[in-house]
Amino acid sequence: MEQSTPFFDAIIQGNLDDVKTYLKDGQEINATLPNGSTALILAAQHNHDAIVDELLAQKADPTLATKTGGTALNRTAEHGNLAMVQKLHKVGAVPGLLALVMAAREGHLSVVEWCIQQGVDVNGQLPWGFTALMMAARDGRQDVVECLIAHGANPKLKNRDDETALSLAIENDEDDVAEILRKAGVDYAKPKPKVIAPPVEDDDDDEPVDDEIPEEVDLSDEEEDVTQKEEEEVDLGRDKEED
Predict the structure, then answer these.
(1) Does pTM surpass 0.85?
(2) Cβ(85)–Cβ(95) under 8 Å?
(3) Average pLDDT, 10 consecutive residues per value, the chain (243 residues)
(4) Which of 53, 67, 91, 129 has its CA 20 to 30 A from that of 158?
């Protein structure tokens, strides 16, 4: 669907009156940016409650996702906005592993508890093997770590780098979290050295494999700023219009 750059500008800036005007003038409510972000996803990303309410009232689709799996509910979970998470769920958004992991990473206990109540698997693992417990432990979210363990999170699970929740806590000097995990019966196991495999010639007949972690839970130390990226895409759209 065709995007309207001024419309997305109004969403990012939190200008509810302009958003209403664009919609009244026929703006497609589920139009997308190049990365798949909709107005609703952007409003949730920027935690603009009033705009989210207006978009939902105008029947914005809460199930749509970006190209990397980001949804309005995921963005809202990242902010810890439980009321909005529940509102999105009421109109059809389904909480999944990303919502749980993002809430755990940011330390939003109420959202973590809600996701668990909705049946999200506390031991679910992202493509690189990270769990909600690993992310909470890495970032020192003590109450979230305790909650996840109480609900059956397995502290012995490992990611693809052979790291556990305990090793991540220790590596990031989260001593209090490490003690919680030790009391849960976990021993420290130093991760195995990373082995870089030699390059392999590509087979033209093979399909490429997308092995990236969704940007909402970029687990590197140089985490990408999703908000900045989306704003740059809006600027890019404006430049194209001016050309």
Answers:
(1) no
(2) yes
(3) 74 96 96 94 96 97 92 96 97 96 98 98 96 98 98 96 96 96 76 53 40 40 39 46 48
(4) 67
